[in-house]
């Protein structure tokens, strides 16, 4: 490093540590730093972003992999013997599925505040390790009431994970980089869903070891995997780009400051702000925050319904045996991963968000009647491919939609919490739509999934019209776009539709 580079790095470090009022200033008095002021070549910029991708996206993606697997492995355990051992008659299975979401929803809003205070590494690694311990404990329950209690505890611990990840990802990338990253983040979870059934089928072959049935080993082995990944995650996870915890940084100071300058130029909200309850809750006055959340509710209603009931539907509706039902879960999720990546790439390249959601919703709308009403099991299984792809690809698409159209640190934190909370409510709905009494056709559940998907298309249409109106007024200087939660205004900001 040359003397001038060393001096610049030292000045930048002092700047970061010097307090919020000086953050983003060069030397404290030369005005805001532009991303171009750092002198990184295009190749160096790509290298920095690749470093962030490897450390951030892949790590949180791997941890989300076990999160999704741990909350949705009930279907595999159910047909592996849990149904009989715990006497899951009537609505007991649905109750066990949905109680997870009660604590999952209630304890999500504080998570985006906590993760800012203690840092992602400690917060995410700790709760991951703890819920892995709960998963191990689920392998030793003897009654359905005990399993219900363990699911309540699991929901409490997992509540902080997803909103914290959504929030963390949004702070590192510009608006038209986040689509691919969200897709990869959730795609890794889809890979988990794709192979969770095959993994569960392999684990259930351990039935009889230590006197335990196969479904118990599913929880125990997957819980151990979660604990190990939680410990590893502590060393691999990254902090916020503006964090002052230098000992946790994996990039140099100039590189982190460059990241912040890019985000600031893109949407003007990279500077850390002191928490204020008034600023945080004021974000709830924006109706669009709730519209994004409702889109996510509609999306997760379908995706969770598939996650919890696909093995059961494959067995009882389509006539496959236990082993086939476990393994045939994989191909639809693999196909969903392909669709997810393609739509994420297209959304970033062409700067589209709403049309991507509409496209995925159309896949779901086409697939649901095929899955439910065709006379051939093979054709109905093809419908499962379309529904799985459309519903799951819309999860990262909806994440990118709200991330592109929210400004302000605490408004972003509030939106992430409400967004994911509504996703949890969708999980409750998804746990209830396919009922035992509707076996084998599950038509009320199919109608519910069709209705929520149609509602998503309507909401996106209304939002797009409003975005066009607001952007037009801003272009004509007739009216400023709504201020963010901190009453700041960025004249270059436009909504993405």
From TrEMBL:
InterPro entries: MFS, MFS_dom, MFS_trans_sf
Domain of life: Eukaryota
Subcellular location field: Membrane
Record's bilayer topology term: Multi-pass membrane protein
GO cellular component terms given for this protein: membrane
Membrane-crossing segments per the record: 56-74, 94-115, 122-141, 153-172, 184-203, 215-237, 289-310, 322-344, 356-375, 381-401, 413-433, 445-467
Protein name: General substrate transporter
Keyword flag Transport: yes
Ranges annotated as biased composition (Basic and acidic residues): 1-12
Region (Disordered): 1-40
Keywords assigned: Membrane, Transmembrane, Transmembrane helix, Transport
Positions of the Major facilitator superfamily (MFS) profile domain: 56-468
Main location: membrane
GO molecular function: transmembrane transporter activity
